[in-house]
From TrEMBL:
Belongs to the PanB family. Coiled coil: none annotated. GO terms for molecular function: 3-methyl-2-oxobutanoate hydroxymethyltransferase activity; magnesium ion binding. This is 3-methyl-2-oxobutanoate hydroxymethyltransferase. GO terms for biological process: pantothenate biosynthetic process. Its EC number is 2.1.2.11. It comes from Aerococcus urinae.
């Protein structure tokens, strides 16, 4: 018998290590495979952040004074 470590991607918990696609485990994939466990659901948060950013840029409320650097006066 040769003892060789095995790495799985949804193979089984009997493997020595597991590979998981980051986008799947963070909840960014629309339909992750059965073997994926979502450890977060960031897709909705990312979409919401992008929409809020676009909305504020269009409304010209971002960037505000506190988000910018002023120009130094030239002597």
């Amino acid at each position: 018998i040769v003892d060789i470590p095995t790495i799985g991607i949804g193979a089984s918990p009997a493997c020595d290590g597991q590979i998981l696609v980051l986008e799947d485990m963070l909840g960014l994939s629309p339909k992750p495979p059965k073997f994926v466990k979502e450890f977060a659901t960031l897709g909705d948060q990312i979409s919401g952040a992008a929409e809020a950013y676009a909305r504020e840029v269009r409304a010209r409320t971002f960037p505000a004074v506190e988000n910018t650097y002023g120009m130094k006066k030239v002597k």
